[in-house]
Write a structure and sequence with these properties.
Strand content: 15-25%
CATH superfamily of the largest domain: Endonuclease Chain A
CATH topology of the largest domain: Endonuclease, Chain A
Mean pLDDT: 89
Shape: globular
Structural class: alpha/beta
CATH class of the largest domain: Alpha Beta
Helix content: 25-40%
Distance between the termini: 31 Å
Low-confidence stretches: 1-15, 248-258, 708-713
Number of helices: 20
Largest sheet: 10 strands, mixed
Number of strands: 27
Length: about 725
């Protein structure tokens, strides 16, 4: 693909732009199609010539994994609505059945594009001495190596199955991958159907000696069918992969929430098949048998010309080929923490500190909790846990603190999708250590990211608080851009304590001094602030909103933004993923600009800045960080936080550095058009396009700079034109 082809790559749109000022449903983009559009942008990074080869392969793998999860959750939910006869309209006026049809058409185009990208990447990889072999291209030495490998590493875990009345069709788990076989007995030609599940315990791509040539596991299995089915020959075969409904339902009145979730997880494993991908040209008898046994309809079947299970391609991002990946990057330790010899509490006492991950290391968050666990002056630690790593150093520290006799309270969210089982394990570990573990609300997810440490200092108790925009997950924190606010501000400490009391005792917090929280007040606060900006516009004063988030879909918030645009408020939104708002439409959203940044790091932080009567960026601005995207689920059905940043250095860091750089980015930005397309402009031969990711990797944050704070930070200008 040439650079020009890349720039013209099509982004599907849900419908044509209506003539005149849109009304009713035409004021919104469809949520599901907007998500698919985001995944097209992810895929486009896989064919972006400015991205290193194996990073492009990683983007292809991510786009495939994203699409799998989209089907197992979102499409599964829509399909259930259709089966129930539910015809409730989406905000853009579509029934569930109409949405499924649009999704099906767009997703099939997306999957075809993924195959095209893979074929191109595969050729480029060969030129870089990374080869995916077919069986016919193996050398004799490689065949000999594979015989030993099969015997020692694969054969013991296989379970070949004849399919007949005595051997019923087996259960195939979600994302399960299998070979279906038609076999004929050598002695008399009698035919048999069989199934060979491809074991997930063995890597999908088998490295030959030397580590640059690979064979797919399914090809290895086909090579050794005679040893699996002796006396039979292969007369036809195909591969197939299933996706199952992975939505999780629990009884709100369950007596034991942990046991109820364990039962629900078992039910989810056996959810109905919602999509069957099968290799093109499969023998008719095998295809019919698979469809009948899995109870799938023709519209739920996708024939694939090429590679099944593209999410597995991430395994080919080889550690040995760093030359084909992004240059290495080591996150910074904030200079202020270094000035205090690693003492987090001393650094926070100096003044509020905002860290920008992954550019500043997430290890500082771990250190905050670990230092509290080891400090004899610390009396109590409270922590929310939505997602964290398997061997979490934060959970280690909480267990250490509890075992040392400190009061430890952990809010573990069991409803964190696909992390439910891991969170159950963590909660039991914490309980064994002596921590008080609670699970929040049955009807709401607790998505807020808060830690508090109560420390005795000079005869009084001081509360140190961490508010985050992302999860307490050291692994994802290496690639997700998020913010961590550390403070010992008494008001923010009192607010955090009231939120924990709400989570543990169900008592609604009263008299919050800074925070707004979902589902009680966050949406109202946002809309109030948007309308306050409208008043500045009507008075002829500067009125502007900068906001950054993952998704914008809440209808009431979108309507408030439309009203603000019509009142003259200049609004610039950086929305990585789903956006239901139509920007740039005369009479509706003339003053709204929407961009999406997709690049080396996953944009994940939630920020909103209000000009407050003076052009942004300014010292007068009101600046907030949040755990919440602007979606109905976050604003109405989750516990979330919206924190106003009052420290002047922190405010300056967010407005003049973080937001200004995001809004000035050219290298990784897509601009949303009124008709739903996302366009980007990457002029050939231009290597000087401004990249916010590159800027953040090269420049320290303001509030963490300690004694180096007098050094100049490169000035950034931003225009909303």
């Amino acid at each position: 693909m040439t650079q020009a082809d890349f720039l013209r790559s099509p982004i599907p749109v849900p419908r044509d732009l209506p003539s005149g000022t849109p009304e009713g449903p035409d004021r919104f983009f469809n949520r599901e199609i907007s998500w698919l559009s985001f995944n097209w942008r992810v895929l486009d990074e896989a064919r972006n010539p400015r991205v290193p080869l194996l990073e492009r392969l990683r983007f292809l793998s991510i786009s495939a994994a994203n699409l799998d999860e989209f089907y197992t959750v979102r499409v599964a939910g829509l399909r259930e609505l259709v089966r129930e006869g539910n015809s409730t309209l989406s905000d853009d006026g579509l029934t569930p059945a109409e949405q499924l049809q649009l999704i099906n058409n767009d997703a099939r185009r997306l999957m075809a594009a993924q195959q095209t990208v893979w074929n191109r990447l595969r050729r480029e990889m060969e030129q870089a001495d990374i080869t995916i072999l077919s069986r016919s291209r193996l050398t004799r030495a490689e065949e000999s190596y594979l015989r030993r490998y099969f015997s020692e590493n694969v054969f013991p875990v296989l379970a070949p199955l004849a399919i007949d009345p005595a051997h019923p069709f087996p259960f195939i788990a979600n994302t399960g991958f299998s070979l279906a076989l038609e076999l004929a007995r050598e002695s008399d030609g009698r035919q048999m159907q069989a199934l060979l599940p491809v074991p997930q315990q063995v890597g999908r791509f088998i490295a030959m000696p030397g580590g640059s040539r690979f064979l797919r596991l399914e090809d290895l299995l086909l090579m050794h069918l005679p040893s699996l089915f002796p006396g039979y020959r292969d007369i036809g075969h195909c591969a197939f992969r299933v996706l199952r409904d992975s939505d999780l339902e629990v009884e709100e009145e369950a007596e034991d929430l942990v046991r109820e979730f364990e039962t629900a997880l078992k039910r989810r494993r056996r959810g109905s098949v919602i999509r069957l991908k099968i290799t093109a040209g499969a023998p008719d008898r095998l295809r019919r048998m698979i469809m009948q046994e899995l109870e799938v309809r023709p519209e739920e079947v996708v024939e694939v010309e090429g590679l099944l299970g593209m999410a597995d391609l991430g395994a080919l991002v080889l550690d040995s080929r760093r030359d084909l990946q992004w240059p290495s990057f080591t996150p910074r330790v904030p200079e202020r923490v270094q000035d205090h010899q690693g003492d987090m509490f001393a650094a926070i006492r100096q003044k509020d500190m905002l860290l920008h991950h992954p550019y500043e290391t997430f290890d500082m968050v771990v250190r905050f909790v670990a230092q509290a666990a080891a400090d004899p002056n610390v009396l109590a630690i409270k922590q929310t846990l939505y997602r964290t790593s398997r061997d979490s150093p934060i959970v280690d520290a909480l267990c250490e603190a509890a075992e040392a006799g400190k009061s430890v309270t952990a809010l573990v969210e069991l409803k964190a999708r696909f992390d439910e089982a891991a969170n159950i394990r963590q909660s039991r570990r914490l309980e064994r250590a002596g921590a008080q573990v609670v699970y929040g609300f049955t009807q709401y997810k607790t998505h807020a990211k808060i830690s508090t440490v109560v420390r005795r200092e000079g005869g009084q108790l001081v509360t140190y608080t961490h508010y985050g925009t992302g999860n307490y997950h050291p692994i994802t924190a290496r690639i997700y851009t998020d913010l961590s606010l550390f403070t010992c501000d008494p008001a923010l400490g009192r607010d955090a304590t009231k939120v924990f009391n709400y989570l543990t005792g169900y008592v609604q917090p009263s008299g919050l001094e800074n925070l707004a929280i979902s589902p009680l007040s966050l949406k109202d606060r946002l809309i109030e602030l948007i309308r306050r900006e409208m008043e500045f516009a009507r008075l002829g004063r500067p009125a502007e909103i900068w906001a950054k988030m993952n998704s914008l879909i809440d209808k009431e918030v979108i309507e408030a933004l439309y009203e603000a645009s019509q009142a003259g408020v200049k609004i610039t939104l950086s929305i990585r993923g789903i956006c239901g708002l139509r920007p740039g439409i005369a009479g509706l959203s003339d003053n709204i600009r929407v961009k999406s940044i997709v690049g080396r790091f996953l944009e994940h932080s939630r920020i909103v800045c209000f000009a407050n009567g003076q052009a942004l960026p300014s010292k007068r601005a009101r600046v907030f960080i949040s755990s919440a995207d602007w979606m109905g689920r976050n604003l109405n059905r989750r516990v979330e936080t919206l924190v106003e940043c009052l420290n002047e250095t922190v405010k300056d860091q967010i407005t003049s550095q973080i937001m200004a750089a995001n809004l000035a980015d050219e290298a990784q930005s897509w601009i949303l058009q009124p008709d739903g397309r996302y366009l980007r402009h990457l002029p050939a031969g231009r290597d000087d396009l401004f990249s916010c990711h590159k800027f953040f990797m090269e420049n320290p944050s303001l509030s963490g700079r300690g004694k180096a704070g007098s050094r100049d930070v490169p000035a950034l200008t931003h225009s909303t034109d």
